[in-house]
Amino acid sequence: MGEFLDTQWPLIGIAFSAGLILLAQQWRSTILGLFFNYLFVAAFLSQQQFITPDLDIAGMMVSTTVLVKLIAGISAILILTITALTFSRDYEANALDEFSLAELRRQARRAQRQRIVAPMRLADFIVPLWALILAAIASLILPRLYPIGSEEVDFAWYWLTLTGIFTIVTANDLLKLGLGLLLCVSSIDLLYTAIASSVQVFPLAMLGLTTIVLSLSVSYLSGLMYGRLKTLQLNELYQR
Amino acid sequence: MLYLLTILFPIAMAAGLFILRRQSMPATSGAILATLVQAALVIQLPVDAPVRLLGLNLAIDPLGQLVLLTILGVTLFAYVVTLYIAHGENFIPVSMLLLGFASSTVLLLQEPFVATLLLVSSGLIAILSIVDLPSGSSVLVERSPLITALHYLVLVLLAGFAMYMAYVLLTIYWPTDQSGQSSPARLIMALLIVGFGMRLAIFPFHAWLIEVSEHTAPMVSVIIITTLNSVAMLFLISTFQYFPIIVTENERGMQVFMVLGLVSVIVAALFGLATPHLRRTPSYLIVANGGFMVFGVASATSTGLASAILELFNHMVAVIIIYVAMSLLERPDGRPVVTIRRDLLWRWPLAGGGFIIGCLLLVGAPPFSSFTSKVLGYHAAAQAGPAYVVLLTVGLLLMIAAMARLFHERLLGAAEELPTEEMPILLATQEIERQSDRRLLREPTGLVAVMFVLIGLSVVIGLYPQPLLSVVDDVVRGLTFVKVSS
Fold it and tell me: At a CB cut-off of 8 Å and minimum separation 6, what does B410 contact?
């Protein structure tokens, strides 16, 4: 058991951090989960034989591939955190007509009321919890049925894909939905790195770019939605 | 150098135009000039002469060059249209950026991983234009564009994910008999169908196109449908070209893809028939036409591919004609917004005429360019079997029915009688009680000219299809996955 923990701690970290994103409801927890997820994915990749350390940073040998992924991931986290902290794309009050101003005030009141009457409920966790159990079972079975890389790599990417998809399905706010999408990108990133015979610079850069563009898109839409509805709750968006 | 310039020039121009985005005239003029320069660059590119850069193969074949030039042509017309109708603040820079991404994707078709990521990134960038408002707008962004953008975001990413997974499996492909394990050919095909199905908006993944068409500015829809979907179609053809194993090992899968294309024609036409709406019905017709193209590509025959490729060009021309006409027909004509207008052809005869011709182009009416591609499509269906001919006929008849219903309900209704004589002003009448003047603006000459130039082009190609057909024939002859007809 001790040996398993010593060697497989990044895999356990990936499992816990992705699970946290699926289960948690608060943006602070989910973004923290994503941050740790990127860290553990980087640690996991560093352990693999196909990644050779080629860069000396302060006496520590690291791989450029891992470093690029880490930088892209942390950039995405920073973009989302800054968005979550500042949120609203503020409309210039003097540029809006009176109907738009009234609509903004109405939405602000509604969002405030909802925050007061909707505390955290245990029932909110039931569906994500079952989704997590389902993802765990599938991630253990699928690598045996459809093996692509090594068993560890397969578990990691299946787990990231499934938790990502379930996060998208069960997300009740826009930011969490974006995190689900980022988990899916992270899983194909991991898989590409694991199966490519030689990791090329350009596809790697493109994967990083996709991660950053995705987080920018999610941030932009979140800002726009918060500015308009004063909430990120998807049910408010669909309300007519 | 030329390849790099083709990729980086539009991206650099997009950055410059972003600074100018609030000054409509300089931004649009700059974009028109940049598009012309980009077209000149694409013409200069050496055809079928791959180069290696940063470990990647960059190349362009005659089909890619032709598609890219058509996309640039359509974008040029879209920019001209924005001189006359309101558009989002970021439309010009975003569309220019999309041109850069489209050019990169076409040049990098031999690198499926990179091409997939470029398609995903361009889809993500397009979101910015979906939720865009005109510069200095005094209204809030509506919920519907936000919902549309959200759906588009998720679908673009899931489509990219499915495509990427398919290419990963192709990289480690093993045939069934070698390892004792069943080959992943079917899984690859399923992932490609889902990925490209979402990207090309074929049934049952078509919902995003209807939403985009309904809730965004017409020229945004044009750019998304023509630029992104055409590049995706080219990518699908090149996937079969560079991985012919998908086609040879997957006859059943290709049949499923063919049937899905025809089902898409039928179902989309049925939806269009059920909802006669100025925006929704043409977008269903566009989905149906996309299904027709997918059928042609999946048939993997020379006639089927020739039909799909010809239809691709026709599709782009039809889409811009329809959306230009639509933006003219939607202009206020003095009646309350809630009024259902049924006499649009009599109100706006030129725009109405353009709209009708655009829809006729989609269904393949002679003498337009699409007639040839539809005939070739029938030929491919006949080669595949009588059931395909029946399905295709049903689909095209339903498309015609949907179009006819739309014309009947929105364009050809009896003209509303306008008050002929002015009511006398009675004593004690206040200004507020007087009916406002029904002013009917003239149809903008520039826009009508754009529309009729495109229609003229389609008629010329329809009457003299030989030059384009010979280019397409050459392209199809070079495709390795095409089945040789017995």
Answer: B276, B277, B278, B341, B342, B344
